[in-house]
Amino acid sequence: MTNNNHSFTVGKLKHKYLARMLKDFASDLINQDKRVIMGSKIGEDAAVIDIGNKYLVAKTDPITFTTNEIGYYAVNVNVNDVVCMGAKPKWFQSTILLPENGTTIELIEDIYKSIHDTCKAMNITVIGGHTEISLGLERPIVIGSLLGEVEKEKLVLTSGAEPGDVLILTKGVFIEGTSIIGREKENLLLEKEYSSDFIEKCKNYLYNPGISVLKEALLANQHFHIKSMHDPTEGGLATGIAEMAMASNTGALILKKKIKILPEPLELSKTFNLNPLNTISSGSLLITLEKKDSSELINLLRKNRIDAEIIGEVKTKKEGLKIEEKDGKIKTLEYSETDDITKIF
């Protein structure tokens, strides 16, 4: 008898359910096509298909938390996952779902223009998609789909991390979440007597430090043997690290004192009781590589105005996921597929 007493919350499907779905309904289909190098797997950022002399990398991801600049978000979150595989983004499609009430020609035009301008800036070709007015929606939803290409020897998998590798974080955490709160909760921030200058800084996190990891991912993969890269999105840094560990069948030890939290995210986390390590963090990039190469990579990134820091080490699976608190105590790294930002939505 099937037990239907499951509790589901907003955000990613819990890993235990997703693993079951993939095992029951995806694994046999992947195995029947030998050209699929990487199919559905928890922690992997995109699928990989052998197309001859190169690999084709395929990704799809929706934008559900934000309306403002939704087209920019949609392109970038898909680009991030493709470049984390070492690939150059090439072809973009989108499914645009619009609410029955509140949709205007200006809104539609803004979404199309945002997608067009963002793709053009990244030399990505828009090749199609679908747009409709849908029942039951309170806000627009844009689902992006992106294809990219990578030379076979430069493919990077999330599952490539190995015990002994160092774990590098770029920029800091809670970047995308800060932008979303600034853009979607401006009135709430004003009610809490935040200044217009503070709110504008939060909004600008979309561009500075920015939610794109294209530059740093391609730069790192061009010059170094990168073992693994991962883009921590919903669930924040902690979930991103957990997904990397699941994919690579490893553990990790994270040093909390090394994790950068910029002033605006830190302030928002206090006001709304959000854990910066569990809040949506597009714009952050997790990289693993051999320790001997880590200093050179960090120097290269910093020379290109990308902040980077070693935040921990990949461990064996038996050692588990741990975090060393600022007082030196080592605890289990707690994560959740439900993003902390949902507390204020």
Q: What would your notes on this structure say?
A:
This protein is an alpha+beta fold. The chain folds into two domains: 15-154, 60s Ribosomal Protein L30, Chain: A (2-Layer Sandwich), CATH 3.30.1330; 158-344, Phosphoribosyl-aminoimidazole Synthetase, Chain A, domain 2 (Alpha-Beta Complex), CATH 3.90.650.10. The protein contains eleven helices and 13 strands. Strands 8-10-7-11-9-12-13 form a seven-stranded mixed β-sheet, with helices on both faces. A six-stranded mixed β-sheet has the order 1-2-3-6-4-5, covered by helices on one side. Helix 3 runs parallel beside helix 4 and helix 5 (175-184) crosses helix 7 (196-203). It is globular. The model has no long low-confidence stretch (mean pLDDT 94).
CATH topology of the largest domain: Phosphoribosyl-aminoimidazole Synthetase, Chain A, domain 2
- What do we call the CATH homologous superfamily of the largest domain? PurM-like C-terminal domain
Q: Give the spatial strand order of the biggest sheet.
A: 8-10-7-11-9-12-13
Helix proportion: 25-40%
Number of strands: 13
Order of helices and strands: HHEEEHEHEEEHHHHEHEHEHEEE
Mean pLDDT: 94
Q: Which spans of ≥5 residues are poorly predicted at pLDDT below 50?
A: none
Given the structure, what is the number of helices? 11
